[in-house]
Amino acid sequence: MTVRWGLIGASTIAREWVIGAVRAAGGEVVSVMSTNTERGQAYAAENGIPKAVTSVDELLVDASVDAVYISTTNELHAPQAIAAARAGKHVLCEKPLALSLEDAHAMAKAADDAGVILATNHHLRNAASHKAMHQAIADGRIGKPLSARVFHAVYLPPHLQGWRLDKPQAGGGVILDITVHDADTLRFVLGENPVEVIAFSQAGGMGKAGLEDAVMGVMRFESGLIAQFHDGFTTKFAETGFEVHGTEGSLIARNVMTQKPVGTVVLRDAAGEHELPLDQRNLYETALEAFHAAVAGGGKPSATAEDGIWSLATGLAVVEAAKAGHAVKVETGF
């Protein structure tokens, strides 16, 4: 079947990544919703989308829409996803799923009740680098994993700064924008869940209204593994990376916390250094292929609603830890 998509939000990420991925994965984008009529019509024309509407309700009553991609600001995700599920539409939602665990669980329940797919757009677990690291750990190539490091401090370009830096009510700030990605990628690569976090946040001059624009901290996982993370909007010249260190070896990945299919992974052990072969593919196309297969009854999305709830719970724990100045348990509500 061809999955026909409606976009809830005429967003940059949809334009730069998701529309092309939908089409490459065999789907169609048939409608876009923007509350600004002129913006919506211009966006539709520029991206070859047949229809532009100005309300979620108008998009959801359209029988030609099978699934929706939600990329509005974070506080709108829950009501829009719940409405879409109740209208019988499958949902791919940007992270974080919501601003509270209660809302995220309500989204998952609405999808379950309606018998539709709800997925989280955690693209990084689709990277060839992270898949290779996951497999190397599962195969025992570094022994027992003991520690990890994620450095995901980048520079937020001017065209994306907006609400992420000046709207706390929209869930702005680096933690719910980037740290949730770290949490999901660590869960995927390690195959286990975080249980506790501690963190310090920073206001380096980009974030307004008291929003943090950088954070450092540590997550503790079920096995006792500890993972250090550094996220930021303010570091113009840093590289990203991901390391996992075990009793018999280390995995060293560079330039892998990115939307692009790039980067390297080196396995370092007693025999020396070996660069792992990577089948680099567009991360979003991989996600959309999995989503379309799930809609057709063949498997599940690469990042499920449950995955989105875990990353949100971890992000909220980091927010609380940074404010409270002590370790905070990760509580998912499951």
TrEMBL record:
Residues 131-251 form the GFO/IDH/MocA-like oxidoreductase domain. InterPro entries: Gfo/Idh/MocA-like_OxRdtase_N, Gfo/Idh/MocA_oxidrdct_glycsds, GFO_IDH_MocA-like_dom, NAD(P)-bd_dom_sf. It comes from the Bacteria. One of its GO terms (molecular function) is oxidoreductase activity. Residues 3-122 form the Gfo/Idh/MocA-like oxidoreductase N-terminal domain. Keywords: Oxidoreductase. PANTHER family: BCDNA.GH03377. This is Gfo/Idh/MocA family oxidoreductase. It comes from Rhizobium daejeonense.
